[in-house]
Design a protein that fits this description.
By secondary structure, this protein is α/β, with parallel strands linked by helices. The protein has one domain: Alpha-Beta Barrel (TIM Barrel), CATH 3.20.20. The protein has 12 helices and 10 strands. The strands form 2 sheets. Strands 1-2-5-6-7-8-9-10 form an 8-stranded parallel β-sheet, sandwiched between helices. A two-stranded antiparallel sheet has the order 3-4. α4 runs parallel beside α6 and α9 (about 240-250) packs across α11 (about 280-290). The two termini are about 20 Å apart.
């Protein structure tokens, strides 16, 4: 359970809703991603990486004191390339594998549909439907930079319409990626604006990241159905997290900020530490910056209340709601 940050003189409290990490990645072995991919992905963070199955993700949750996590796989086979390793392009964690890992950890891991929609749009629509109806997946992954497309591409409309039909939120990556073959021009949050204009009820979690933090905050604030995934700030300087939260608050979007860790293993510049500690200590950063801190209710919502409602993750006390629930 998460012991929330407390104001001076308070005795503390336990939050009544589950704490939720919206960004955990499954990559168990080199059959899921070549070693060069993992090395390139982790190069800016010291180069050390670890393979992760469902049990490893649950250990990360336990270490961080977090109740539930969204398990992301991947399908980047079509566009993955390295000139020195032309035969090694199978970055693929199948949805059935994700479902099996979630089923082994009910109530702790919930699946995310990972597809490359432009491989076959009709198949992608059917796969989204299958994963939600058969496995109870709670979100779909959109990777414009990795899949080489503008998220406003009208060819993707059937995918978005299926997510609307199923009330399935979309997690969209924007901003920085260390993968050289992923064109950053496709990673601008502004490209998601067209989705928000066309689909006012489509729920989108936007991964806010350098160098587009302000642009991402603006896009989230513009669209009441958009949410800000703050996983990028996990392991970094708490003052950076505090500044982006202040930006969201100033734009009336603090209630749509959610916690994520990005596997809690990408340490950036600054004090570092466990992702959950960075978030829990945000009011210490507020003191250092001379600004107003977050209220207990704001912190509770960020650490799980908002994501639990958005992704239909049950209260801990119910004892239900596994990866296939």
């Amino acid at each position: 359970m998460w012991l929330a940050a407390t104001p001076a003189g308070s005795t503390g409290w336990i939050d009544p809703v589950p704490t939720v990490d919206v960004l955990l990645y499954l990559t168990e072995t080199a059959r899921h991603a070549p070693a060069w991919w993992m090395e390139e992905l982790y190069r800016p963070y010291g180069g050390e990486y670890r393979w992760t199955d469902g049990a490893a993700l649950v250990r990360l949750l336990d270490e961080a004191g977090i109740d539930a996590g969204l398990a992301h796989g991947s399908d980047i086979r079509r566009t993955t390339h390295h000139p020195r390793f032309p035969e090694q392009h199978e970055v693929h964690v199948p949805n059935d594998y994700t479902a099996a890992q979630c089923a082994e950890h009910p109530g702790r891991l919930y699946g995310v549909v990972c597809i490359d929609p432009l491989r076959d749009v009709r198949w992608a629509v059917d796969e989204i439907d299958r994963c939600v109806r058969e496995y109870g997946f709670r979100m779909m992954k959109l990777l414009p930079a990795y899949h080489y497309h503008d998220p406003g591409d009208r060819r993707l409309d059937p995918v978005y319409e299926k997510c609307l039909e199923l009330d399935l939120p979309i997690h969209a990556h924007t901003g920085f990626t260390p993968i050289i073959e992923a064109p950053i021009r496709h990673a601008r949050p502004m490209l998601l604006d067209e989705m928000g204009i066309r689909y006012r009820d489509l729920k989108v979690l936007v991964y806010l990241a350098f160098p587009y933090e302000d642009e991402g905050a603006a896009v989230v604030a513009r669209h009441p159905n958009f949410y800000a995934d703050l996983s990028y700030y996990a392991g970094g300087d708490p003052r950076d997290l505090y500044r982006v939260l202040q930006k969201l608050r100033s734009l009336g979007a603090i209630d749509r900020a959610v916690y994520g860790s990005d596997n809690n293993d990408k340490y950036k510049s600054g004090p570092g530490g466990a992702a959950s500690d960075i978030f829990r200590g945000v009011n210490r950063a507020a003191d250092e910056c001379g600004g107003a801190g977050l209220t207990p209710s704001e912190l509770e919502a960020i650490m799980g209340g908002t994501a639990a409602r958005l992704l239909k993750i049950p209260d801990r006390g119910l004892g239900v709601g596994g990866g296939s629930g």
